[in-house]
Amino acid sequence: MTKITTENKCSFCSGTKCCSYFTQQVDTPRSKDDFQTLLWQIAHRDIEIYQDEDGWFLIINNRCQFIGNGGSCTIYDQRPTVCREYDNDWCEYDEPAEKHFRRYFTSYDELLAYCRKRFKRWDK
Fold first, then answer.
1. One Pfam family, short name please (predicted)?
2. Which one, of 84, 81, 89, 82, lies nearest residue 23 by Cα?
3. Are the beta carbons of 107 and 113 closer than 8 angstroms?
């Protein structure tokens, strides 16, 4: 059995999870207006929202167009700097990122329920 290292880990990952989405940090929501903006964002297809120790983030689930059928990068030698500098010492091959989320919303309804709980007068 081959030992999995950071150098070869990506070749064992059939899901290419790191190449199927990207995140964008957003300002910490504090007001009802802030949460209304998050509701608008999550109302769009393939958007999720989470909070972890670093803040609040949008997850934009949109697979990289350069992932080939076997899961490898078809432009590996010319890949963007972000990809070149990606550190896979710990990645979602090791454990799901969701395990470390404080809050995680995968739908409009989930976030709306949170808003109603956080703001007692949400619907008024």
1. CxxCxxCC
2. 82
3. no
The span from the CA of 3 to the CA of 88, in Å, is: 15
Q: Burial, 89: exposed, middle or buried (Cβ in 10 Å; 0-12, 13-18, 19+)?
A: exposed
Q: What share of the chain is helix, strand, coil (3-state, %, to 5)?
A: 30, 20, 50
CB 52 within 8 A of CB 25: no
Structure tokens belonging to residue 121? 């007068």
- Interval 36-68: pLDDT, tens: 999 999 999 999 999 999 999 999 999 999 988
Beta bridge partners of 51: 56, 103
